[in-house]
Predict the 3D structure of the following.
Amino acid sequence: MDAATSLCVELGFAATTIEAIAARAGAGKQTIYRWWPSKAAILIEGVEIQRDARAGFPDTGDLRADLRTQTSNVLRLFDSDFGAIWRGLIAAAQNDTAAADGVRRILRVSIDECIGRLEKGVKDGQLRPGLDLELVVELIYGPMYHTWLLRTRPVNASYMNQVLDALAPALFIT
Amino acid sequence: MDAATSLCVELGFAATTIEAIAARAGAGKQTIYRWWPSKAAILIEGVEIQRDARAGFPDTGDLRADLRTQTSNVLRLFDSDFGAIWRGLIAAAQNDTAAADGVRRILRVSIDECIGRLEKGVKDGQLRPGLDLELVVELIYGPMYHTWLLRTRPVNASYMNQVLDALAPALFIT
Amino acid sequence: MDAATSLCVELGFAATTIEAIAARAGAGKQTIYRWWPSKAAILIEGVEIQRDARAGFPDTGDLRADLRTQTSNVLRLFDSDFGAIWRGLIAAAQNDTAAADGVRRILRVSIDECIGRLEKGVKDGQLRPGLDLELVVELIYGPMYHTWLLRTRPVNASYMNQVLDALAPALFIT
Amino acid sequence: MDAATSLCVELGFAATTIEAIAARAGAGKQTIYRWWPSKAAILIEGVEIQRDARAGFPDTGDLRADLRTQTSNVLRLFDSDFGAIWRGLIAAAQNDTAAADGVRRILRVSIDECIGRLEKGVKDGQLRPGLDLELVVELIYGPMYHTWLLRTRPVNASYMNQVLDALAPALFIT
DNA sequence: AGTTAACCGAGACGGTACGTCGCGTCTTGTT
DNA sequence: AACAAGACGCGACGTACCGTCTCGGTTAACT
């Protein structure tokens, strides 16, 4: 009954209760507990399913442009209903090991997709060789998450362009 | 009654209740509510007081070394009791505007301190001129928070050295 | 600050708090506690003062008529604001010895006034001699309080006339 | 959980809290609230159950003797644990409509039992015909409740004998 | 006239109980 | 057999008052 993610969108993560999810889903609480150990687990599964539906990393041959496209897509996602849920899950992960595992599992896939594209960039002679690509992902997405989670200033496409431009001398060839 | 931060350290942010804080502090619940609107507010005040006690940014004249020193100090802090509280506050900030304001207020000071040191670095000819220094802070601390909050891999001094080294071509002169 | 009896009238005895009395009286709570040990004590004093203002038992020479007049007056009192307070005090007296003393003190005066009139009735040859007059008071007022406190049916002047008529063979001479 | 009436006996009505009742009953507070709206409601139900267990009015054929027996029984009850609870309930009824309804409901049964016996007394030619029997009940029990609730003097069997003797000319034949 | 003490309003304090909410477990009746 | 429905023991919530306790500020009395 992932239609219960709707509650999370309507009321926010914190105000979403398992009781309400069960009621909204027309299910008994027990049934919920039979399938998921916690509220976070339900939403993680929801996110994973939705994620599988969404496709991978763009590849037009121009790495820098693709990174711009992809970060812009991610930001659009963060601005949508998904953003509220993702925020809540990251928050939950700070106090709940299981949630942290779920969050990490979700991120792993996205990071690996990104790393895959970066590897192609190296092959294409667009990305400096010898870089720890996991680190490159963090250099790019770190500022985004920092600004998005800590709300120090608005995060949008132009912000990410600034980030990518600033990182350019460190990452890209010519 | 900031000695109630001890509970947060012992039990974690989520398991810390205002009831327990009051009991530990030998105070009535009402007294707590008279002074702070929420658990987060108490801890934010505690963090701010402690922060005021701690000093500012190192300045040896060598910007890169100072950044290494400072990030290393911050990481040590994150590994200490403070880390658990800070984690909890950032989590709370995701679902609570007031907490978010407090977190932002705390961060602002640290960021401004960092920006101050970066400005000196520009004057000293160690940092590239023309950079948005707020952005530079995010380039440096973004990866740190990303990795620390999302727990994708361990964060330690050597990790931050990697980050600074990777950023070097983008930030530093020669 | 017996103007605080107004609160009792407005909100009922149970909902009247010493805090509210103090606020309404424009006094500090401490000042209230300096003068009275409890809410009941305040109201008892208020009742006593008001009682002293009201006069005694009617005496037209016709005992039966006087009893009708007096019971009717009492009932009118019970229907007024005083009734609500008196009800509350009697209730409080069930769980509070001090309140019980106050209630008994107030009643004593009224009962003695009634007994005084009854004694005159004996002298006048209207009341059977040899009766325990305290008991006679109870025979008359007992049904009234029973019906008023337990609310088994409406109490009004005609009810009291029935009571007096029914008691007549037991009390009055011809 | 009528075993919670024990608390009322031990501590008195006023000092009995729903919290303590729940604890003593080994139940959650919510469970108490699910079944009864207030402390008074619990005790009323307890009294009603106990009342159903106790039998009705004695009938030896001698009305006056039966009234003596019954009032004496009632007084013994008032002196027992039940007395404390009944006192508290009558007190509560003064400020609480629901409690008043409960008290009235309980009384109704007893009054009707008494009226039943009085009717037989009329048939047997022991009680004056033409009396409002409801009123007769009040003439008998009114003094008892008056004296018991207002504590103007001790109530005991000999007191009730005095009452019945005094009422005799008004009520009984020969 | 200046100082001092008593008393006051205001309201913070440590508590206790309130009535509500949601937890995770359990029982019951239905399909 | 799995399910919805929801009761259950529990624990924390945030609120209301309790009775006690400082606080300043204002009188009033007495040097």
